What we know:
Blueprint: H1 18-37, H2 44-51, H3 55-61, H4 65-79, H5 89-105, H6 109-120, H7 124-150, H8 160-178, H9 184-199
Helix pairs in contact: 1-2, 1-4, 1-6, 2-3, 4-7, 5-7, 5-8, 5-9, 6-7, 7-8, 8-9
Amino acid sequence: MELESREAEPGTVRPGGRTARVRAAVLQAAGDVLAERGFAHLDLADVARRAGVGKTTVYRRWGTVTALVADLLVDMAEQSLPRSRTGSLIGDLKANARLVQRTLTDPRQGPLFKAVIAAATCDPRTAEALRRFYDTRISEWAPCVQEAVERGELPEGTDPREVIRAVSAPLYYRLLASGDPLDEAAADRAAEAAAAAAHAGVYAR
């Protein structure tokens, strides 16, 4: 059954309405397919069936698989937890690292991220959507580094975004390349390494 006959562009609807419920159902279904089967098996008609939404609704609103993935990444960025405020740089960076670690080891989110990253290597629109997703998350956490600079914990001119990137990079390497354990200990080491480098002035402009 088609739940909505008219759809707004992704990201422009108010939460709580029928259109928002349609979007949520479709994005949930798309994420399920990505986690279960990967990008190559993502099909708009199949997503519509899983979501209980008419095919015309899905095709009219998203049009292509890459547009659907882009909207899924927008939603994931919006739904991500806000940054922690522990009062210390190492506390904040460990909170960030553990959030990344929990996300990447989640039974659904981990395979979903792998699928999207794999798709981004060969699809420019997915790659751009993925860059926007990470830009949003880095922007959310970068202030904890700037606050550390203002407290005198870090050298003036420290690049907050580079520090946050340095925290998550080793965790993604474990997910995608090395296969080494991706546990809390690995997350804490990544945070400690980034903090030590930042204290040493490695990320000062």
